[in-house]
Amino acid sequence: MNLIKYRKWWYILSLVVIIPGTISLLLFGLKPSIDFTGGTVIEIEGLKDKNKIEQLTKDANFENVTITITNKGAIIRAKPITEEKHKKFKTELTKNKGTTEIRVETVGPSISKEITNRAFISVALASLLIILYLAYVFRKVPRPANSWAFGITAVVGILHDALVLLGIFSLLGHFFNVEVDPLFITAILTVIGFSVHDTVVIYDRIRENLVKGTSETFEAVVNRSLVEMLDRDISTSFLAWIIVFVLYLFGGETIKYFVLALVIGILLGTYSSIFNSASLLVSWQNFRDRRQSK
Fold first, then answer.
1. CA dihedral angle for residue 127, residue 163, residue 257, residue 51, rounded to 10 degrees
2. By three-state DSSP, how is residue 220 classified?
3. What pTM was computed for the model?
């Protein structure tokens, strides 16, 4: 089974997935939750019909509404509302028998722009450290391999996963009003960690096979290493994916999109580790060989 032979197709598939999401990010961005923007939180008890609650908020002219169904009722989040809008909503709400408003409060953004910027800086710093660490760990890898290539291609793989995930949630936010909250940042970082771990396991097998010495080409060694690790890699990822998928089905509304990000991210991490990162190693080496021959 020659997976590396079709690396150009893997690159094309990645571009097909990345481009729509990137365009959406540039045009629409992500839809931030109340944690980033601030707003009004209303908790009600006795009414769990999401459609009816949506209609009540619509009649009261609430904006950017997010409804979370709880055991006793629902939590409504929206842009800051006026006293007039609140009175109108409460009047209509009390017409539903057994329904009461438990609390209403206006909150500021709990996640500031500064903290968000620091999260991006942290990812950039982590990427640099990953490159340096892998370059050091693989420093004794036999020629023709290059230790820096292992670090850089691993980071390209995790950036691929993060960019695709951001693009998907940008599209979901634009077309289905899916908001990103602090849990989404946690999901992104979890996916990055999963992807790096997966990639390093495959790279370590490539290094082992190179150290053993062989008359095979670099491309053949990389492909053989991938095939040797394929069953283990897919099995491990599939078991993790089953767990988060079941959690997505039965985990409740409050963590629904956090778990959805993990469901998508595990698939992305597995795909990029097998088909992208290892393929990029070969492409990197072929590019160096062509430059040296010239």
1. 150
2. helix
3. 0.83
* Higher pLDDT among residues 114 and 229, named by residue: 229
Token couple for 256:
């629904």
CA distance between the termini of the chain: 32
Beta strand 100-107 pairing with 66-69: unpaired
pLDDT of 112 reads 60
Strand, coil or helix: what is 108? coil
Quote the CA–CA distance of 134 and 139 in Å, as a whole number. Answer: 8
Residue 268 has pLDDT above 70, yes or no: yes
d(CA 229, CA 240): 17
pLDDT digit string, tens, across residues 57-109: 999 999 888 888 888 899 898 888 989 999 999 999 988 888 999 989 887 77
Looking at residue 237, its pLDDT comes to 92
Cβ–Cβ under 8 Å, residues 36 and 102: no
Average pLDDT of every residue of the chain:
88
- Per CATH, the number for 4-32+111-293 is 1.20.1640.10
* Whether residue 117 has pLDDT greater than 80: no
Sheet (strand 66-69) strand order:
66-69, 73-78, 39-45, 100-107
| E strand or H helix at 47 | none
Q: List the domain boundaries for the chain.
A: 4-32+111-293, 39-107
Question: Under CATH, what is the fold of the domain 39-107?
Answer: Alpha-Beta Plaits (3.30.70)
Range in 17-21, 130-134, 157-161 with the lowest mean pLDDT: 130-134
What is the Cα–Cα distance from 170 to 150, expressed in whole angstroms?
Answer: 30
Peptide bond into 182 cis (omega under 30): no
Long-range contacts of 233-237 (CB under 8 A, 24+ apart): 233/198, 233/201, 233/202, 233/270, 233/273, 233/274, 234/270, 234/274, 237/198, 237/266, 237/267, 237/269, 237/270
